[in-house]
């Protein structure tokens, strides 16, 4: 039986995000209706923390998609973002926000991902586990358990301030940080396949693609 004190193991878990859109559907689905929805959202993405992997992806999308000209991110925290999402859906108000899956919001609300023609958010991702070098020798029991389980603090792991992260999203969301610190940690492989980030909408919205959003005039 594996027996050790978990308090000695510094684990880092975290949430990474994609972009989700919630709002009221239109009957005609024309550009004017889409523009009205975009205007109601004040051309603003309700985001999470500054510096998060998905925050950077959102910034890439704002540059890559011409129809997102004039849009901006309103950054706060994951908790604050989810609160605003809940309130918006309760009132059937439009909202654009950062999100990710797997996450409980996809069970709580009926959501669908938007098509991403520019490929900014990539394809399905793997959630990978990384640990500090020599953890297998220093704490073999902890290493074994971590290796069995399905976030991001590359610097802390690289410097030894933390022992492991169970939520490194690859190959897209955290690729830049992975490349920056590669060699200073051990990658012990994916713990979950089929993770996804990207823009999404609730099923009652007529928007099907990121390109359906309208620029700020």
UniProtKB/TrEMBL annotation:
Q: GO molecular-function annotation terms?
A: transmembrane transporter activity
Recorded hits in InterPro entries, A to Z, give:
ABC_Gly_betaine_transp_sub-bd
Q: Which GO terms describe its cellular component?
A: ATP-binding cassette (ABC) transporter complex
Q: Which residues form a coiled coil?
A: none
Residues in domain ABC-type glycine betaine transport system substrate-binding?
A: 33-149, 151-215
What is the protein's name according to its record?
A: ABC-type glycine betaine transport system substrate-binding domain-containing protein
Q: Lineage of the native species?
A: Bacteria, Bacillati, Bacillota, Bacilli, Bacillales
């Amino acid at each position: 039986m594996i027996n050790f004190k978990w308090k000695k193991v510094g684990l880092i878990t975290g949430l990474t995000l994609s972009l989700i859109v919630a709002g009221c559907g239109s009957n005609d689905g024309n550009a004017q209706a889409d523009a009205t929805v975009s205007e109601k959202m004040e051309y603003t993405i309700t985001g999470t923390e500054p510096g998060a992997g998905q925050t950077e992806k959102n910034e890439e999308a704002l540059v890559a998609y011409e129809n997102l000209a004039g849009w901006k991110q309103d950054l706060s925290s994951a908790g604050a973002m989810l609160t605003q999402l809940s309130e918006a859906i309760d009132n059937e108000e439009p909202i654009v926000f950062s999100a990710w899956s797997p996450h409980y919001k996809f069970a709580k609300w009926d959501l669908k991902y938007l098509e991403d023609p520019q490929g900014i958010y990539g394809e399905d991702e793997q959630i990978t586990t990384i640990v500090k070098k020599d953890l297998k020798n220093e704490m073999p029991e902890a290493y074994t358990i971590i290796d069995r389980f399905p976030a991001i603090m590359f610097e802390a792991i690289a410097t030894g301030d933390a022992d492991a992260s169970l939520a490194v999203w690859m190959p897209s969301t955290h690729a830049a940080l992975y490349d920056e610190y590669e060699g200073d940690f051990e990658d012990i492989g994916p713990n979950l396949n089929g993770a996804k980030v990207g823009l999404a909408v609730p099923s009652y919205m007529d928007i099907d693609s990121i390109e359906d959003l309208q620029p700020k005039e």
